[in-house]
Amino acid sequence: MYLSVQLAARRLGVSSHTVRRxxxxxxxxxxxxxxxxRRIKSEDIDELAALIQRDxxxxxxxxxxxxxxxxxxxxxxxxxxxxxxELLGEIARRATAILGCHFCTISDYDAETDLVCVLxxxxxxxxxxxxxxxxxxxxxxxSKRLMAEQELAVITISDPAADPSxxxxxxxWGEKTMLLIPLVYGRQSVGxxxxxxxxxxxRFTRQELRLARALAGLAAVALHNxxxxxxxxxxxxxxRLLASxxxxxxxxxxxxSRCASAEEALRETAALARRVLGASRVEAVWRVxxxxxxxxxxxxxRTKPAQQEAERxxxxxxxxxxxxxxxxxxxxxxxxxxxxxxxQHLRALRLxxxxxxxxxxxxx
Length: 364
Fold this sequence. Notes:
Multidrug-efflux Transporter Regulator, Chain: A, Domain 2, 3 domains, alpha+beta, 11 helices, six-stranded antiparallel sheet, Beta-Lactamase, four-stranded antiparallel sheet, 51% helix
């Protein structure tokens, strides 16, 4: 019988990379399928496994080699990813592969509020599961103590001494073993890495626990770097948007000042805001006492039926923001953004509202 590289690695207790290297050097014979995949005789694997077992020194060296290789590969993979969704998927893939688990949950932890927010929940095939609502660690005293002590722990479903709240979660999802590892950065617990085995109650080896702790350390640093990258990117995007808003507003002032009526000024203001924000729709409302004047600007690429359909079934990722400014009346701008938007969009809208209010109040 012939086995794949992954099955051979599991039987020998080494990484897939090591098995490939052994086959490349001829240390472990293999054949190639028509598709180029390596297949290794079960007898050759058993023979090598027996040699490793008899030679404790070689076995220890191979174990150390596997540990170093796994951490080196994980370090390169994690540090090369700065986009959070890609990073979360890579952490889960590495953790489940290295420790042979079925699921991985990665969470953010806020010590001030004692809240845990699940960032991602993956199976070992890379499939992402539902998003979870934040929960308080007050409901899970065992996990709370781990975060404070920054120690990892293994819980099995039949352990009579285990925290009942943790066992209840495991029973709900049919898990047999749970490995909890705090994510620590700068001596602070900033998150939680959870690994689950739903087939068996496990006792992890000392090497596996060392790998788990080291991997959690790499993940904590990578998540911190991704957070910094996101904040810097958002800051740059905000600066670009505000600069664009200022330039567009300055360029639009002459046109606004030439408007002959409040209605015309409102239309120009709504069009200006839509262009700057990339909004699908902007409504401008001017109130003076009981008198209300309205105008709007919509994305010209949409037909009227499409606009009406969009209003009836607004996508969940759309966001509506409003800004207002007062002069001799009250100007309110409401923009529908195609994405989630952000603080920079609101600031730009406020800038446009403040600039346009005077033009709407005193048309040419």
